[in-house]
Structures are given as C-alpha cells and as structure tokens.
TrEMBL record:
It comes from Clostridium thermobutyricum. It holds the Pfam family Y_phosphatase3. GO terms for molecular function: phosphoprotein phosphatase activity. Belongs to the protein-tyrosine phosphatase family. This is Tyrosine specific protein phosphatases domain-containing protein. Residues 202-274 form the Tyrosine specific protein phosphatases domain. PROSITE patterns: TYR_PHOSPHATASE_2. InterPro entries: Prot-tyrosine_phosphatase-like (IPR029021), Tyr/Ser_Pase_IphP-type (IPR026893), Tyr_Pase_dom (IPR000387).
C-alpha cells in the first residue's frame, strides 16, 4: 500500500481541515515548532477531519498517526493578513518517496511592515535569514521590515537584459518598454534572464550557503512579487532535495493562483493609464509566471551540466556525501 498522503488547509475563521487520500483510523497531534514535543489533539476515523486551530497565534505542525504509519502536515499558505504569496516549501514528495520537511523554507513577496499580530506570528516561524533578491532601487522604494533576531541579506538575483552590471527593476523596465525605448519585449527579457540566473549567481550562492549551515532555523527568500527571482530560488532548493521537475514547475506556477486577486487589482489600476491594448496585454503577462520561463533555467542547467547533481557540485561544491546529509536533514 502506498504511503498515506494528505492536504491541510485553513478557513478564514481559523478552522483547520485535513483531507487524506483514503479513510483511516488514528490520532492527530500537533506541535508548535519543528522539533517541539507533540501534543494530542483528537481521535478520528475518516478520510477528512476538521478542528479548531489549537493555537491560532502560532505556526503549528500537525501529525496524523495510524497504527501503521504517520504523516506530518502544515498549511502551504502562511496566514499573514497583508500577504498573498507567503508559502512554505514543505510537503512536496521527492523522487525516492520522501517528503520535504515543513517549516524550513519559506518564499514570499517583499517583507512589508507587519502589524503587531502578524509580527508575533512571524516570529514563530523561526526565520534566521531573509534573502531579498530585489534591485537597489526596488529596495529603496519599499524597504524590508527589520525584525529583531532576523538577518536581512539583499543581493540582487536578476541581471538586467542589456547585460550591464545593473540589476533588473521590472517596473522600470516596463516603463522603458511602454515609452518605446526598450530593445526587446519584457517576456523576451525575462526568458533571457531565466537562462543565465542559475549560473555564477551570488544571491543563490548565499542562499545555498545558508541551506548548508548547521542548526535548526528557517529561511525566507523573496523579491517584489515572490514569483520570478524567488521562483527560481525555490526551484533550486527543491531540486537540491530531490524533488522532480514536474513538482518543481507546479510550485513555481502556484504564484499565478495565489497572486490572482492582487494582480487583478494592479491591472484594474494600471488599465486606466495604459490605453494601448498590446501594451496592456504585455503588462498582464509579466504580472504572472509561465512554464516556459522556468524551463529556460532548467533546460540550460541540464544543457551545461547534464544532471542537477552535477550542477550543484560544479556551481556550489556540493558532492554526493554532502547531498546525502542535506537530504537526511531536510526530508522526512
């Protein structure tokens, strides 16, 4: 019989729902941190069970136990009030049947100011490093919130399309495109950038350095919308841990779902000022992500290095022995 699988979601009223892939009888426990002591919650016999969040101010992890097996679950989308794309990379299955641990790797849009309630919740995530992949101008326009005990690291991750040493500011490039002074379309510029981003990139080198660091802590990576630069950074972590390409692409494309409402608001605002239909179409396209974008990165990695294992060896110095240890640490 295949391993038990499940999905956990939160309703707006703080009610937790767990849906399993088959009916089982067992118990549900929860814990407040990745390595905390488990506390009993409820007995159940079903393929679906719901209950009130036992500690709504804390990031909790839930363990479903039967006589034969157990599975740890948590919510994908982190419930911070002013964020739409703050996600946990845990819960994805690897090619050898293991699962990425919850609570170690987060991805989001830029770290805007948190109110007191959200700040308390954020602190329960145990985040040690925040990697900000934005350009200097993006950071100046909307600086990250500085949180005690959290180290903010800003290293731009995407080089501009014209190949100079400046880093990409997508908003500035869109203005350039709409003024008619851009030499290539924004989509072509993005594809070109995706093709080179995985190589010799100091931002991702710093990210992987943190992944390799000893200790029990979480990492948050973000850019402006949390979809392109962060999308690739997240893909690299999942590939490092042995997640298959199909799942990596799925996670990448999820930004379209989570950003749907916010993007609609942005389009509604800018459509008043963009009269040219073709320009508006391009604007809508770059607000989302496309499979063809991330494939530029993945295909170029395989073209240069043949395998992802060889890529991580050549670009980051991670040999098979260290890869084994990292997967042992970050996989169930």
């Amino acid at each position: 019989m295949e391993k038990l699988k499940g999905i956990l979601k939160r309703n707006n009223d703080g009610f937790i729902n767990i849906k399993l892939d088959r009916e089982v009888e067992g118990k549900i426990f929860y814990k407040k941190t990745v390595n905390d002591e488990e506390k009993f919650l409820i007995d159940f016999k079903s393929n679906e069970v719901g209950f009130k969040d036992p500690d709504i101010e804390n990031r909790n992890f839930y363990i479903v136990k039967t006589e034969e097996e157990e599975i740890e679950l948590a919510e994908r989308l982190i419930p911070l009030s002013d964020f739409c794309n703050f996600r946990d990379l845990g819960g994805y299955y690897t090619q050898d049947g293991r699962m990425v641990k919850w609570g170690y790797f987060y991805r989001s849009e830029y770290l805007k100011e948190l109110d007191s309630k959200d700040l308390r919740y954020f602190k329960t995530l145990n985040i040690k490093y925040v990697f900000d992949y934005r350009s200097k101008s993006e950071v100046n326009d909307a600086p990250d919130m500085q949180i005690e005990g959290v180290k903010n690291i800003n290293i731009p991750a995407m080089e501009s399309a014209d190949g100079n040493n400046e880093n990409l500011d997508m908003e500035a490039y869109m203005k350039k495109f709409m003024s008619g002074s851009a030499t290539i379309s924004p989509k072509e510029m993005l594809r070109n950038s995706y093709k080179v981003m995985p190589f010799g990139n100091e931002a991702y080198k710093k990210l992987i350095e943190a992944v390799r660091e000893d200790g029990e802590f979480a990492i948050l990576q973000h850019c402006t919308a949390g979809k392109d630069r962060t999308g690739l950074g997240s893909a690299l972590i999942l590939l490092l841990l042995g997640v298959d390409e199909k799942t990596v692409i799925f996670d990448y494309l999820e930004s379209n779902k989570y950003r749907k409402n916010d993007n609609a608001k942005i389009i509604n605002t800018y459509s008043k000022y963009i009269q040219n239909e073709e320009m508006l179409k391009v604007f809508k396209e770059v607000l989302g992500v496309e499979e063809s974008f991330i494939l530029e990165s993945l295909n170029e990695i395989k073209s240069r290095y043949n395998t992802y294992e060889n890529y991580f060896l050549q670009e980051y110095g991670i040999d098979s022995e260290e890869l084994f240890k990292l997967r042992k640490k970050y996989l169930y």
